[in-house]
Amino acid sequence: MDIDINRLATLAKLQLTDAEKEMLARQLPDILEYINKLQEVDTSGVDAKAYLTDAVNVLREDVVTSTRNERDAVVAAFPKQVGGTMEVPGVFAE
Amino acid sequence: MTTNWTVRAIRDAVNSGSATAASIVDEALSRIEKKDGEIGAFLEVFADDARKAAKDVDARHAAGEKSLPLAGVPIAIKDNMLLMGHVASAGSKMLADYRAAYTATVVARLQVAGAIIIGRTNMDEFAMGSSTETSAFQKTKNPLDVTKTPGGSSGGSAAAVAADMVPAALGSDTGGSVRQPASLCGIVGMKPTYGRVSRYGIVALASSLDQVSPFTKNVEDAAIVLSVIEGKDPLDATSVVLDEPVAADLSLSLQGVRVGVPREYFIDGMDEDVATCVRSNIEKLRGAGAEIVDISLPLSPYALAAYYIIQPAEASSNLSRFDGMRYGNRGEGAIEESYRSARGAGFGAETKRRIMLGTFILSAGYYDAYYKKAIAVRAALKTEFDQAFARVDVIVSPTSPVVAWDVGAKMNDPVAMYLADIFTVAANITGIPGISVPCGTAHGLPVGLQILGKNFDDNKVLQVAAAFEALNVKA
């Protein structure tokens, strides 16, 4: 199977070295060959869903339960902060 | 130290006043000091906080709290579980300096029950691996033979218990990441039914498969730890209100218990000595009065393939949060390039492999052929197990097709590494509970017997496991 490693890396927002690309180009087809055996299974008529539980729309009250300490700790863990908030690069080019 | 190094013995000693939590923690710290240089189970030992927590438990005892379920019990947690103020790196360079801003529900419940969180243990990066070798930080050795891996991905927690550094540890089991290392290290590992235990505060790998799971030296201790961490958590919508909490009394006669043995779980290519060991243990169950039922689960050969679609698909989505903005190190350049460079630098080889695989599986044109097919097989597999459990009480199999392998042996062959999970993934895909219990050796290394039960019948799994364990103690 032909896999466009560069396109996938762009979709995954992943910078890869040439060596990594070369390795993935070798390994991904092996893995896909293994998982392709699923195509042998007849699943017509199977009602499939991504989750196992029957729960739907589990709701709770929209109230703040976290503390100021937790908020400060979240901000402190950001790679860059400014004035108690997260600093991010510009989204729109100048 | 005269107390037996088990959860039950330590808890009883502290509650009765014959030992203090402080003395137990000193003992645990000295064991870790002595042994972990060679084993490499811990990424960090929380010595100061553990000593402080022990004093608190002793103060609670003095104030009249004399029946704490985990009084003074030192417990290690996998590095993907949050404890506020401490680093939780999930074995990844991406989170090497990340300090938790809150505490995971399971960890908080351990603390309330009197347990002492002693440190965080090594793991495969973001729990992706079967040998703990994809950790960005260190290799963990199997305490029974340091030339072998402890299994994975919760290999640090397994090794810490197997080497008697701690009597219990938490891991997370997404495809066998607790049962498989328990098997390879000769201890007990119990994956509860999906939804039994909260996932809040656990670094997510594959959200529909992950379940926090205890490692212990015996079945009773696993039940004690599970009884503390289980139950509905408003912060995890997939956790459920339990009709049947873990039973205090695990005693059960094996007389008439129907034990299913699926013929698909003794496969070509599995280690003959492992198969022989497991079969002889099935005969032991028969000898104790269990009714051994030959069953077939025809979709079993497809469970691993379905797993290696669902898991990378969910992982690639979950790991999209690691973008260098909220976690890790900020990448170079404008925003798009910044994402790419932060992720390229922060993730290791196996994580990149699964992100790429998951991205491929979920990409336009392949989604139906892979992801939708896999969740259809998942549903069919669940039906197949439901039908089997109409005929039997539990299903037994080997936990792993092989014993612990040499460090490094499978690192360059992803498919060979993935095959180590072949008998464990079905429980995650279908949500059912499963335990691995030591059942003997092959090639001088431990073999585990896996016991699976139907959804939320964790008690039956624990009871059969306890009765099986008692047979081996007697033998």
What's this, in brief?
The complex is a heterodimer of chains A (about 90) and B (about 475). Helix content of chain A is about 35%, strand content about 5%. Chain A has three helices and two strands; from the N terminus they run αααββ.
Give an overview of the whole structure.
The complex is a heterodimer of chains A (94) and B (475). Chain A is mainly alpha-helical. Chain A has a domain at 1-41: Orthogonal Bundle (Histone, subunit A). Chain A is built from three helices and two strands; from the N terminus they run H-H-H-E-E. The longest helix of chain A has 18 residues, at 18-35. Chain A is flat. The relative contact order of chain A is 0.07. Chain B is of the alpha/beta class. Chain B is built from 15 helices and eleven strands. Chain B has helices at residues 7-16, 21-39, 47-62, 105-112, 155-162, 179-185, 219-229, 272-287, 300-318, 335-346, 349-361, 367-389, 414-418, 425-430, 458-474; strands at residues 42-45, 74-78, 116-121, 168-172, 188-191, 212-216, 258-262, 291-295, 394-398, 434-442, 445-453. The radius of gyration of chain B is 21 Å and the shape is globular. The model of chain B has no long low-confidence stretch (mean pLDDT 96).
Query: What order do the strands of the largest sheet of chain B run in, or round the barrel if closed?
Result: 1-3-2-4-6-5-10-11-9-7-8
Q: Give the strand content of chain B.
A: 5-15%
CATH superfamily of the domain at 7-229 in chain B: Amidase signature (AS) domain
Please state how the strands of the largest beta sheet of chain A are arranged side by side.
Answer: 1-2
- Assembly status: heterodimer
| Amino-to-carboxy terminus distance of chain B | 28 Å
Characterize the main sheet of chain B.
Answer: 11 strands, mixed
Give the CA-based shape of chain B. Answer: globular
Give me the number of helical elements of chain B. 15
- What class do helices, strands and sheet pairing of chain B give? alpha/beta
**How much strand content do the residues of chain A show?**
under 5%
How much helix, percentage-wise, in residues of chain B?
Answer: 40-55%
At the third CATH level, what is the topology name of the domain at 1-41 in chain A? Histone, subunit A
